[in-house]
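Re: the 314-residue chain
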Amino acid sequence: MGLKTAMAAQQRHTQRLFGIPEVVGTATAVDPGGNPVVLIMLEKTVGPGLLPTQLDGVPVVSRVTGRILAMPKPPWAGGPGSGGDSEKVDPTSRVNRPVPIGVSTGNAGECSAGTIGARVTDGASVYALSNNHVYALENEAELGSEVLQPGRYDSGCAYNQDDVIGTLSAFEPLDFSGRENTMDAAVALSSVDDLGKATPSDGYGLPKSTIVEATLGTQVQKYGRTSGFTQGEVTGINGSVRVGYNAGTAFFAGQLIVESNKPFIKAGDSGSLLVTSGREPTGLLFAGNKSGKLAVASPIGLILDHFGVSIDGE
C-alpha cells in the first residue's frame, strides 16, 4: 500500500471526520516503520470508539495537537530597536533599508505584526510576500494600503511614514463560509531600495530561486519575526486543517504539516518562508498550535503561480 492509497482514503473521509467536533485536521503521514497512515489531529482527546482505526484499509493514527490558529500577533508588545548594519538584527525592530526577509511587518491599518517571507519578482517589479492575514487583514485591507516594517505592534502601535516599505498589491481572499482554502497569502509592491532578499545573519541566508515540493521527512527551516531561526520536519502532506482567525474559522486543503521537538512557530511568525535544509523554498507558513511544535504551511509553488511571481533568490 502506497502514499497515494492513503491520500485517497484521507480525502474520501475527511469531511465526515470533520463532523467530529474534536477533529481539527487530517493528513497523509507515515508511522515509525515508514508505513503510510492517515493522521487525525485532535483539539482534545475523544472518547473510545469515536475514531476509526482504519479507513479503506489504511491504518489511522490520531494525535492531540490542540487548536490550530493563524499566527499574526505576538502575545507581548515589542519595542522599536536598532538594527540595520549590526551583525545580528532584532527581527522585531525597525532595521535599515533594504530590510532583510524574516523580520517584522504588517499593514498600516492594524496594530499587529507578522513576518516578511520572501522578496518575489514578476521580472519587472519586486514584492514582499507574506500572509493575507498579515498584509490584507483577513480580506479587510484595501489594495494600495501601506505596508510597514516593523509592523505597528512593534512600534507601540504608532504609525510612522518612514516605516513604509510598500503597498498591498494583491491577495488571495480567505473564505470563512466552509469552502476549502488553498493558501493564506498576499504580496506588497516594494523596491530593491526598501526590501532585501536574505535573512539576517543568524538565519539561513539567501533562499534559492528554484522551489521544491516537500515530501514526508523533508528537513525544513524558517526565519520568523518572533522565534527567529528554527528547524523541523515535514510530517504530513495533503493536510486538511481547520484554522481559527479573528473573522472565524477557515478550512484549508492540500497543506504541509511541519513538526519539531521544540517550538517551530510562534505568534508573529506568520508569513515566514519554509525552506529545505538546502534553502529551497517549499512553503509559506501561516498557522500553528499553541505549543508551536506543529505548524501549517501552504505549498509555495501554488502561491507563486497564483501571483505570477518567482522567488528573488540565489
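The CA atoms of residues 259 and 294 lie 5 Å apart.
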